[in-house]
Amino acid sequence: MEGMQAYGAGKAGGAFDPVTFFQQPQTILRIVSWLFSIVIFGCIANEGYINRPNEVEEYCIFNRNQNACNYGVFMGSMAFLCCLAFLALDVYFPQISSVKDRKKAVLADVGLSAFWSFMWFVGFCFLANQWQVTKHEDNPLREGGDAARAAITFSFFSIFTWAGQSFLAFQRYKLGADSALFSQEYTDPSQDATGAPYTSFGGDDVESPGGGGGQPNSEGAFDGSSGYQRQDY
């Protein structure tokens, strides 16, 4: 009974084991994605804005395109929060007793993780393209180059970490629920309208062992002749 699971987690009410939790593949991928989002956000927010020697106003290091930096900062901050939300859900997930609620959570994990993988693919292509067309005269001192390349690199890695989370969530969805432990079709026998009709103790509707219909319970149902016959000698 202890090995039975529903969508990758055992029966609700069990004790939380932090060692087992942090050894799970989806937890590791979430933490890695969380760290990547911090690196991307930090690189662009701290060193992603530069200016020419003869200018005071700072521009985005990616081809002086403010949208590129805004996209990277926004994606990094939102991915950071999303990873924390998923980690909190993973901690609470074994305590969810409803199989339907577990199914919804797993499907949300599949969809959102796939969405983030796609968004990081878009972000990687966007940042890489803008970095490629950046003019040398816009940054003659090559300030922030390492930070820009780090943001592009970890955006590329984030594609696969989020895709891995979506894949693992889909695997949990395929596992489904163990019907022996988590029954979604359980019906209270006292409320089952399709069950056998209730029969009174008197046996009004009880069929005879031979398959024939029941006999009415009247005064002539037993007159002594059918149960015992007198013999004449």
From TrEMBL:
Give the record's GO CC terms.
neuromuscular junction; synaptic vesicle membrane
Where does the sequence pass through the membrane? 31-51, 71-93, 105-131
State where the protein is found: Membrane
Q: Where do the MARVEL domain residues begin and end?
A: 21-174
Recorded topology in the membrane? Multi-pass membrane protein
Q: Quick one: where is this thing mainly located?
A: membrane
Q: Which UniProt keywords apply?
A: Membrane, Transmembrane, Transmembrane helix
Q: Where is this region: Disordered?
A: 188-233
A Pfam family that this protein carries is MARVEL
The family annotation for this protein states: Belongs to the synaptogyrin family.
| Protein name from the UniProt record | Synaptogyrin
Native organism is Labrus bergylta (ballan wrasse)
What is the gene name? SYNGR1
